[in-house]
Structure formats: structure tokens, C-alpha cells
Amino acid sequence: MEKYWFDPAGYESLYNCSMYSTEKWHSFGYPNKFVGAFYTFIGIIYEILYFPCLYTMSSPKFLRFSCYKIMFFLGIIDMACISINSIMAGYFAWHGNVFCDYPKIMYISGSISVGLWCTACMSCMILACNRCCDILMPEWMEYLFQGWKAYLWLFAPSIYGLYFVFFTPPVIFTSIYDGAFFDPFVGMPVSDKERYTSWPHTMNNVTVIIVLCIAYTSICVFVCKKSQTINGHTTSGLSSFNALQKSLIAQATLICTLILSAATVYVLMQFIELSGYMVIVGQISWQSSHGK
């Protein structure tokens, strides 16, 4: 977003809408009332469901656990992003809008949504490390995450997300594909995908895929071995691997699996031409990763 505020010439070279009239730009879009209604509906449902979840997690009973501190932070980030990638995107899809219909709104909201996505990605990686420590190396939990230390960890994704807001290209929603792309003119005669490639975003997504796969594969292997040990010898081992830990693993795994799927689709979208329905799948995956 720094180009918009501090480099007007650079912004105009990449996001110039003067080559066509407003009516001509709008004619490139494809109004899709079904997709628009679906995006908006699912976004509103996610937002409504989040309120009681966050209210419950905010109680001292849950916030004494470091993983719930991280998940509560994730919930706030998710609610902010859903308002853009679901509700706002639904409006644009319904009306068949493209970038030059609302250039400032789409540019700024796209920058914010990229920052929120990357904040969620790093938070999810921290959550995965938190679960690994709890299950695989419990002696590290107090040293790394106990008390105020969990809040300290959350500074990193906050700064990380701000970097993406201000110093990387935004994703721009287009009704041509009903999805978000870095190229604001994708599907139009003036499209030039190479000019808008965001390597930091791609590196973020690839890193998320690798870290989450390693973390949750390690946890699954440990859980399987632990179960075999308990079944083969004695149930006394259950005291060291209790129902609460299993519940926390299940919650964290669900959260991070949805982010993993969205990251994978958007990495593919950077390098290969996906069909229209796959772009919609990618958009829904992104929405669901924040609405888990």
C-alpha cells in the first residue's frame, strides 16, 4: 500500500484506469448473483458464529492456556478478514465489479486482506509449534509460552502482517473469475500477470505448507505411537495424554488444515492457469480458513 500513499507515479503505472471509460471497465465484469449471495451469506454466518466463540474463549478458564490466547488472537484476525474476502467480495460478485469500478476501495481492502491472511498464517505456525511443544516436548511449554510469553509471541505476526499490508501488492477481487488475484486486470485485454507477482506472498504460503505439514505429521505420528503403547501395555499412560490435550490437538489441526488448503490453492494460482471453478474453490478455501 506504500505505492498508493508515497509513490503516486508507481501506483499509476500499475493501477491506471484511464485507458477505458468507467462503462467499458464495468462491461468486463460478470455479475453472478448466486456466487455473490453465497459469499455474503457464508461470511455473515461465520461472523455471527464467531461472537459466542470468542466470548467463550475470552474467559479466564480458557485464556490460562497459551493455545487459547493464540486462537483468540486468530479469531479477531479472522473476523476482520471475513468482512473483506466474504462479505465485500460477495457484493462485488453480485454486481459484477472489477478493479476500476472501485479502485481505491479494492486496492486498500486488498492490501489489508493480504496482511490479515499473512498474520493468520504466522499465528497458525506459532499455534502448531505450541501444540508440538505441548505434546512432544512439554518441558519447553513453560519456558516458551507460559503466562505473558504467549502474548509476546503475537507481536511477530502483527509486525509480519503490517509488512504485507504496506510493502507487497494487494489481492484484487474480480467478478470475471469470482476470486482474488494480484493482477487487477486479470481476464481483460490489458492483463500482465508478471508485473504483479508477489514473491513474498508465495514464500509465505510455501512456508506455511511446509511448517504445518511437518508439525502435524509429527503430532499424528506421536499420537499413533502413544495409542499403540497405551493399548499394548496399560491405560495408566492416559494421565500423560489426556482428553484436554486430544481436544486441543483436534481444534488446532482443524484450524490449520483449512489454512493449509487455502495456501496450496493460492500457490498454484500464482504459477498455473486454474479453471473458473478452481478459483471459486480457492476463494471459498480462503474464506473457510478464516471462518473455521
From TrEMBL:
PANTHER family per UniProt: SERPENTINE RECEPTOR, CLASS T
Keyword Calcium in record: no
Regions crossing the membrane: 37-58, 70-93, 105-129, 150-173, 206-224, 248-269
Keywords associated with the record: Membrane, Transmembrane, Transmembrane helix
Protein name: Uncharacterized protein
SUPFAM superfamilies, A to Z: Family A G protein-coupled receptor-like
Transmembrane listed as a keyword: yes
InterPro entries recorded: 7TM_GPCR_serpentine_rcpt_Srt
Organism field: Bursaphelenchus okinawaensis
